Amino acid sequence: MQNVFPGEVFANTADFDTGIRQLLPRYDEMLEVITRCLPSTTGRILELGCGTGELSLKILNSHPDTEVIALDYSPRMLQFAQEKIAAAGYQQRWTGIEADFGDWANNPEKLDIASKFDACVSSLAIHHLQDEMKLKLFERIATSLTQDGCFWNADPTLPESPALAEVYQAAREKWAVQEGINLTEIHAKRGTSSTQGYSSQNQVATLDTHLQMLTTAGFKTVAVPWKYYGLTVFGGWL
Q1: What is the CATH number of the domain that holds 127?
Q2: DSSP symbols for 130-146
Q3: pTM, rounded to two decimals
């Protein structure tokens, strides 16, 4: 297996967009929830771990006055996203920056991205951080948002019990069968990842732990607008 950064998942970047939709039920629905939770007046958005640019693209499509500043530590993912955004004609409203958002949480002065954002979003990225770093990141996000700013994150969460873990796994396997997906073939395209910067393989926490962290970080309202077994969209407002 080829070595990849945590979050890259597949040995070949071109396999990501199709592969992730075969690994995760309702992937597009999950990202669309984030776009719906962003006010129409949203100006500057910070995206953490933009991957191949799928969430960026949905936001730029649905919010014509929005500018996205996207961070990702994978040069190949950023290149892929850049080409996709340019092909859609949105390159004037999208900036990709090669950076580790864990490093940004600890050393924000290293990145010249200005300070205040109307919103921050992330998908399938923050669960690669240890819990201590998740809290640091949420605190950094809170200080980087404008008043009434919001944050939305789509991520897997840790099942609250072994019984629920079995339920979630069975639901995903049944979904794969219904969709005619051969999980063995999909997994064969995956790469092997190890620690990169502040990220390592899945460091999932329970949904309740995430919501407590957001409250601790200063979010006055926390919410869970979408959940499908172990996949969740959560966040809130300052």
Answers
A1: 3.40.50.150
A2: -HHHHHHHHHHHHHHEE
A3: 0.94
